[in-house]
UniProtKB/TrEMBL annotation:
Pfam families: NadA
Main location: cytoplasm
Organism of this sequence: Hydromonas duriensis
Protein name from the UniProt record: Quinolinate synthase
UniProt-listed GO biological process terms: 'de novo' NAD+ biosynthetic process from L-aspartate
Cofactor: [4Fe-4S] cluster
Subcellular location: Cytoplasm
């Protein structure tokens, strides 16, 4: 089967424990699209392998539509990273194939240590994860021992292991408000835009690690405002990893699940969406009579690094899903985490889940969708 790929350089910000920031470079590979015949062959073989290997496929909203559709067609799930991990934990399959980026595979392994967790592409990274190395982050935490450490889900197992709390983009507001009521000062990592949004909304004392998502950081307020003028009836949906100037223009702000809910519930026919354009597939599936327009990442005020799609999410395709299934049991692309780190990383996740239950947030369909209103509108 033809599997032509080419490599691209991806720049991302790498903050340090001393609040300095450098620009680093990583790589992503771009797989070619299969033709119609190959595509059907791949899908058929993957379905057979999932059954043979007692495996289930979970896919993030940002990966290729083929993988989203295949996950749902085979009894898997399309969702955010935490719900992917929880679904895998609760599913009877003993092998989990996690189509997303590497930290998502780690999250699944943290919750399911007894299961085999596979990722289609081990080099599929995340700028938030890459920009928050565990050693430097630990130094940052050690320099501020009076602060409660709250980290976003988009971090490595080692960073989670240093945290007191892990949060998703939706429950973060409630958790930080709760900590503020207790008189806690917070050390937040890694996304500075999400952290600043939470700080503005809660008034909490927050010290920020200065990371950013290369996708959401590129949305531009000047260009978005111009687009709004072209579509004056459109509602603007924004992920809170975006810059404050973009969030300010939003009609609703929230996580992936919150954006889906807003699109379903808001009385509008047209939406401008500021998040990874992988979301467009699910948005259009669920709302076939509505129009969804990508928020701009380029224009007179910008240079486009990601063009609204994570280059590492794009590394997942049918070919490498099939390959990792065929090699299941050999160690190929299998997530391994030191048990001490895994057990310690599970504590902040459990703390968040226990808090969610205490405040009446149900686990279905997931944490994010239950508290959409907590994040927006801006």
């Amino acid at each position: 089967m033809n599997n032509l790929t080419h490599r691209i350089a991806v720049e991302y910000e790498k903050p340090s424990a001393f609040n300095s920031c450098s620009t680093e470079q990583a790589w992503a590979s771009v797989p070619s699209e299969p033709n119609a015949v190959e595509r059907e062959e791949l899908i058929s073989k993957i379905k057979a392998q999932l059954i043979e290997k007692n495996a289930v496929l979970v896919s993030h909203y940002y990966v290729h539509p083929d993988l989203q559709d295949l996950a749902e067609a085979t009894g898997g799930l399309v969702s955010d990273s935490l719900e992917m991990a929880r679904f895998g934990r609760d599913h009877p399959a003993q092998t989990l194939v996690v189509a997303g980026v590497r930290f998502m595979g780690e999250s699944a392994k943290i919750l399911s240590p007894e299961k085999r967790v596979l990722v289609p592409e081990m080099d599929a990274n995340c700028s938030l994860d890459l920009g928050c190395p565990a050693e430097e982050f630990t130094q940052f935490c050690d320099e501020h021992p009076d602060r409660t450490v709250v980290v976003y889900a988009n971090t490595s197992a080692a960073v989670k292991a240093r945290a007191d709390w892990m949060v998703t983009s939706s429950i973060a507001l409630k958790v930080v408000a709760h900590l503020k009521e207790q008189g806690k000062k917070i050390l937040w990592a890694p996304d500075r835009h999400l952290g600043s949004y939470i700080q503005r909304e809660t008034g909490a004392d927050m010290l920020m690690w200065q990371g950013a998502c290369i996708v959401h950081d590129e949305f531009k307020a000047i260009e978005l405002d111009a687009l709004k003028k072209q579509y004056p009836q459109a509602k603007v949906l924004v992920h809170p990893e975006s810059p404050a100037s973009v969030v300010k223009l939003a009609d609703a702000v929230g996580s992936t699940s919150a954006i889906l809910k807003a699109a379903r519930d808001m009385k509008a026919d047209t939406f401008i969406v500021a998040t990874d354009n992988g979301m467009m597939h699910k948005l259009r599936q669920q709302n076939p009579d509505k129009t969804f327009i990508e928020a701009p990442t380029a224009g007179q005020s910008a240079t486009c690094k990601s063009c609204a799609h994570c280059p590492w999410m794009a590394m997942n395709d049918l070919r490498n899903v099939l390959k990792v299934l065929e090699q299941a049991g050999t160690g190929y692309n299998e997530i391994q985490i030191d048990e001490h780190i895994r057990a310690r990383a599970k504590l902040p996740i459990d703390r968040m889940l226990d808090f969610a239950q205490q405040v009446g947030i149900t686990s279905k369909p997931n944490v994010d969708s239950a508290i959409t209103q907590g994040l927006g509108p801006a």
